[in-house]
Amino acid sequence: MDERQARAWLVTAVDEARAGLAEGGIPVGAALYGPDGTLLGRGRNRRVQDDDPSTHAETAAFRAAGRQRTYRGTTMVTTLSPCWYCSGLVRQFGISRVVIGEATTFHGGHDWLAGLGVEILLLEDPACIAMMRAFVEKNPELWNEDIGE
User: Fold this and answer.
1) Where does the pLDDT of residue 89 fall: very low under 50, low under 70, confident under 90, or very high at 90 and above?
2) What secondary structure does DSSP assign to 78-134, as a single string?
């Protein structure tokens, strides 16, 4: 995966994360891109806004993409390392690669995915790190609830 392209796609996920934060939610955003680079779907963590613990950013982007014949060759772009739930989604549907904005504030299941042959590109983007650190500092109870602690 070309890092320049990955960083360009990360902008979509960051925009979603910022929108979620502005709505009073958890600032995690994601986007699913097709093999040809077409944006298939985008979404943000809406577990607070919708009172639905299953609406993570990756699942929202996946749902927004709609039914695809196959997910081979697609790329999930997320501002934060995917949790086990979202890592399972990537595995279940054969998403080929995951671009991760950061794994400093939360290290999810991306090592497991890499071990299964999913291409992982970890960017450690300073803006993603700063956004999550600020959120966690201001909302530790909500953050711990989101990650199941």
Assistant:
1) very high
2) ESS---HHHHHHHHHHT--EEEES--SS---SHHHHHHTT-EEEE---HHHHHHHHH
Q: Which of 3, 16, 58, 149 is flagged as catalytic?
A: 58
Cα–Cα distance, 138 to 7 (Å, whole number): 27
Secondary element (H or E) of residue 43: strand 39-44
Mean pLDDT over 86-104 rounds to: 98
Residues of the chain above pLDDT 90, percent:
94
User: Which candidate, 78, 54, 59, 28, places its Cα nearest to that of 148?
Assistant: 54
Neighbours of 81 (CB within 10 A): 24
C-beta of residue 90 within 8 angstroms of C-beta of residue 117: no
The pLDDT of residue 145 is above 90: no
Active-site annotation holds for 16: no
Measured CA to CA, the distance from residue 80 to residue 53 in angstroms comes to: 17
CA angle 38, 96, 44 (to 5 degrees): 60
The candidate with the shortest Cα–Cα distance to 33, out of 2, 83, 104, 24, is 2
